[in-house]
């Protein structure tokens, strides 16, 4: 490199460093300094940087409880292997079926009243598997538990870690799990089924086997001071040996009608005068959908209303009468609204666009 090029490179690096430092991205500053330390041909610069980095672990790397340990990163890419939420925040309180809620409360209580267990010669539950379709509150449950226990939540997204670094995933996984074991936290291993999905070539199968072995060992050895949660949408893809290792399993389901009603009401009660009616109507119209889909639809209606200066009701109505709902489904919905007493026949007609005569005829044929 000529002197000129070298000085340009230094300016470029300096500007980049200034940019990330000024935008408060400490983690990136650390990663960048690591890279410089590795790349530079000046040994005194390299050792000065390494020394500084050693003395000042990243701020987001926790640590309230363990100030000297840095969050694990992939050694070559510096890709961050874990996401850490120091104090998990929930957008709103979750709604769960009774059995799920009871189990989540139990897990928290076991930790809060540890002496009661220890006294009886027992340990708290260490490993729990969350199963269920997307958008029903599995990740939220991990946040909820961490918040209740006032511990940081560490999230390891297995599919992200595996997608680009399969060759090193075993090492990375061990690294991450060792780190999580060393601090007082709740660990969520998200998308656990990723471990079972990539079966495309023989080299990968070997690596996957090693991964499963690492995971099984760690599950067996997990200390009772920690809580390891894992979540999957595809429990059926998991090796039964993995399943069996978890001490408890919690099956999250799609919300029932009552849960949809309560959820829609909580989303609308402060912003829509007819929140109650809409909660009833949407509990029928959106049944079978996940919490996150329902939330997305209600929020989209709210956005449209805010932008157009119209009422939220107008936009919620499009959820019922839009053309992508097949005609027979719309008729069925109109009949159910009238039949259950949620809406009069006229209101059911207004909401769904189905002719009043059709609604009346259907109800008559059902003996109303
Ligand atoms: N049980 C619930 N009660 C209230 N809100 C919920 C519930 N489940 C999901 N939500 C809403 O949907 C969002 C997404 O939920 P979450 O990320 O917990 O789903 P998940 O089950 O982990 O889905 P995935 O399998 O796709 O990771 C939450 O942030 C929340 O706003
Ligand atoms: Mg999730």
TrEMBL record:
InterPro entries tied to this protein: 26S_Proteasome_ATPase, AAA+_ATPase, ATPase_AAA_core, P-loop_NTPase
Residue stretches making up the AAA+ ATPase domain: 124-256
Name of protein: ATPase
Record key words, sorted: ATP-binding, Nucleotide-binding, Plasmid
A Gene Ontology molecular function term of the record: ATP binding
Organism: Paracoccus aminophilus JCM 7686
Family in the record: Belongs to the AAA ATPase family.
A Pfam family reported for this protein in Swiss-Prot or TrEMBL: AAA
